[in-house]
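Below is how a single chain appears once it has passed through the pipeline. First comes the sequence as given, then the structure the pipeline wrote out for it. We keep one example in the README because the format questions we get most often are answered faster by looking than by reading.
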Amino acid sequence: MPKAQQTRKVARTGRKRRVAGWTLLALGVVVAAVWVWSGWGRLLWEFAVVPGPHATLDRRQLRVTSGELEIDRYEVLKDGFAGGRLGLRPPSGLHVSMSGESPLWRWTLIRQTGDEDRDGDFKTSKTRVGLWPVPLLLWPPAALLLRSGIVARRRAMKGACPKCGYSLAGLAVGASCPECGRASVR
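Resulting structure:
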């Protein structure tokens, strides 16, 4: 095998793990930044969905505010009910706003509430999911993936097996590791 091809193969060792680690780390940073911003700001996305068999209107809202992702559902069940009591208006897309108040963060994990009109005209449901646990769940695997990718590359650069670290000096090019059986990257 030519020297240039060997060098490229060694450089690729652990690349998938490093890329996955950096991706998880970046995703955690973005969610953490949104969580911090949501103490002062509000992101609202309204949209309508095709109503089910028992509904005449079905509208959803996704809202990021106070450190939570809120998923609201308004479902009108009877024909002729215009949603006046709910204050429904046509969905208007994406809104971003800032509050002039002091920041507020809720430390919710998951909370679900619902309401139904006495006459059976409409149903509402609201699910709130806290954003703060997401980075805490993403960062440990990111750190482990980054570390294992970096260690595998360093081992391969030193001429050792990327999996177990056994020295491959004196073995034929392309021979597998005698310790763990992994195919050589040399």
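The longest helix spans residues 133-157.

See the next section for the split statistics.
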